[in-house]
Amino acid sequence: MTSLLTLFVHACILIGVNSMLQPKRVKDTYENSCLHNAVFNFNSSSTNYLEPKCQTLFMDKYTEMKNFLNYTDMQMNYLYSLERAVLRKYEKKQNGRHKRQTGMMARQECRTLSDGARGALFGAIVDLKTPTGGMSRYDTIAGMHSFAAYRYAHLGPSFLGWHRVYLIMYEEALQEIRSDVVLCYWDSTLDFLMPGSTQRFTVAFSADLFGNGRGNVINGAFANWQLPGGGTLRRDIARAQFPNPPPSLTRPGIVDLIATDPSITSHTQIVRGGTGFTDPDTGRVHTWEQEHDNTHVWVGEIMRDVVAAPGDPVFFFHHTFIDYGWELFRQKINPNGNIDLRNDYPNVFRQKINPNGNIDLRNDYPNVGGFHAPDAPMFGFQGITNRDGYSDEYTRMSHLIQLVVTGVVDQHNSFTV
């Protein structure tokens, strides 16, 4: 009898808690739906397509982001037009998810592109940089990776999805200039394998590819590249930080670990704030985001600065490789493509704020997870949630799915230079 009474009391408590939380959950669902609709149907001249409540919500978010970034309405309208294009492509991929992917060029290592393909891509980047109507579209996109975004897009599980969507937006902008270009990635593990001080003479940082690696960039497609705050783009690759040796590039062993180790099977094991994996070189807990940090430091100058890093076009080639490494991991844990990896998005901050499991987190709903909470909107992408960034549809939009569909790239080490 006591047991039945206890169960009855517990059931009543749970029903009561659920009834208190339900209005907040309904509100969150409404906000996500409102923001998605607002961006999907974005009209720079009017918000009359939205109901009054949604108009207010969207304009509050618009103003908040505009103030964060210190942007003009022209810049904001440009960003929202790009996100609108991304969302519409996403929905199209969802509706055709079971159809064979055709007519899509896979991303490649930058050094494997033909001279014509590389010239077209780099030329589109230069065109994107060139101001039109007083606004540089490149600088507008680069500015999204600001200090405001640092809290939302780094130091947690949203790092992977946020940067994937960011790359897709950047690629969308390039394809508006030239429809046949696709981002390439800089596989810095190839340069890591160069012995010692010879790394600074890699062809990646020469006139043939990204431009010189030390001092003002004076050759290559990005020669005399002007930075938003003034001054010319500089680099300082492979520079020893006395008394320490030069920073490391991305290590092949780490890529192979997340791509092939059968014991690493969850996103919680590769993101900051989660359990991590053991770095085979140091024995410490490590993550894919931390490994990505190394190359930023190796390039030096503005690439060391989380706010300014996208001012160097190398940022996007580096992050396209980080995205590729993530995709190798995703294909390992979902080889048949029949798992919705949005459900593997880690709510790691539940573990952080309640490590002993002795706190009733229902009392902290929905703030558990903060900026990296699964259903929180991505900063700068109000129509997309953090969890959405793990969707396979964004993989298809990233021109990465062909790695499996066509076998264009079978193994990480299959590239030659």
Automatic annotation (TrEMBL):
* Keyword entries, A-Z: Copper, Metal-binding, Signal
Domain annotation Tyrosinase copper-binding: ranges: 154-171, 312-323
Return any one Pfam family short name.
Answer: Tyrosinase
Question: InterPro entries annotated for this entry?
Answer: Di-copper_centre_dom_sf, Tyrosinase/Hemocyanin, Tyrosinase_Cu-bd
Record flagged with keyword Signal: yes
**Signal peptide interval:** 1-19
Any GO MF annotation of the entry:
oxidoreductase activity
PANTHER family, per the entry? TYROSINASE FAMILY MEMBER, TYROSINASE-LIKE PROTEIN TYR-1-RELATED
Name assigned to this protein: Tyrosinase-like protein
* Species, as recorded: Pinctada fucata
